[in-house]
Amino acid sequence: MGEAWSWIREALLAGGLITTLIAVLVLMTGSWPPMVVVESNSMQHDENGEVGSIDAGDLVLVMSDERQKIITYAEATEEGSPYEGYESHGMPGDVIIYRKNGGTDTPVIHRALLKVVANDSGGWDAPGTHLRNVETISWTFDIQCPYHGGTYNLTVENWDPVHEGYLSMGDNNKNPRCMFDQSAANGQSEGTGLSDGQGNPVQTTKEEWIVGVAGSEIPWVGAIKLGLSNNSDWVPSSSWTKLVISALILLAIPAIWERVANRTMESAPEIAQAELEEEE
Question: How far apart are CA 8 and CA 145, in angstroms?
């Protein structure tokens, strides 16, 4: 009975710690779920993955957009802007997590490049640019895109956003090439854009479609979940190596700590005195 109760107590303690951790994350992020696993390489900066950018297999905290203002790439790169120089996950601007056309399929985690706002006069404004009350959006970003062995600056031309919201794109502009998520914003040199679960082209991302803003990342850990679900094709091979090394270090810490603690106790004067008293 005593051994069974010990197991029950350990299980309750572990469950309580996990529940407390989840509750803390929810309170900290203001979102549910408080974190997501990245499934694709669309945000990857290096083929081997790197800490600081978002790779497949990373866990990313989901910060509520009600608590954190979304700063776009355009705002973060505008000279004289209060947000000039702001970076998140290795590039200017915030990374948002949104549902394609507000649907129920797997959310997308991509960088917010530009926000379009309806002008009272009937046109469109784009914060972070000089575009005010324009009929369509034309803008060039300082993002290099590969094309026929050369490069060009990412450009959106004569884009009609239809409604207010965000223009977004994955950071990995080499796989296969630069491509806005929103199909209508892509020109001939870009891809076709994303589609929702019903096959409809992704539209300008409305505020209400946004799940949250990408916060801190916990690298590699989410690869376990992807591996168990046979969805780990995009996880960099180096991430598995780093995950195994991290797990071994974590497992070794308690054993090392116990050995150090035992040696410290053995060398303590009180222990030596007690041993002498026992011998007498």
Answer: 57
- Residue % of the chain over a pLDDT of 70: 84
Alpha helices in the chain (DSSP H): 2-29, 73-77, 223-228, 237-266, 269-279
Contact status, residue 204 vs residue 182, Cβ threshold 8 Å: yes
Among candidate residues 174, 175, 171, 185, the one with its CA nearest the CA of residue 145: 174
- If one counts every other C-beta atom within 10 angstroms of the C-beta of residue 27, the result is 9
Q: What is the pTM of this model?
A: 0.82
CA dist list (Å): 124 to 131, 140, 164, 175, 275: 8, 17, 8, 31, 84
What is the C-alpha separation between 239 and 224, in angstroms, rounded? Answer: 11
- Torsion from C-alpha of 137, 116, 207, 122, nearest 10 degrees: -100
> What does the alpha-carbon distance between residue 49 and residue 38 come to, in Å, rounded to a whole number?
12
| CB count in 10 Å sphere of residue 164 | 15
DSSP 123-180: SEE-TTSS--SBSSEEEEEEEEEEETTEEEEEEEEEE--SSSEEEEE-S-TTSSS--B
Residue-wise pLDDT tens digits, 2-25? 566 667 776 776 677 677 777 776
98 in Cβ contact with 113 (< 8 Å): no
Q: pLDDT tens, 120-164?
A: 999 999 999 999 999 999 999 999 888 777 888 899 999 999 999
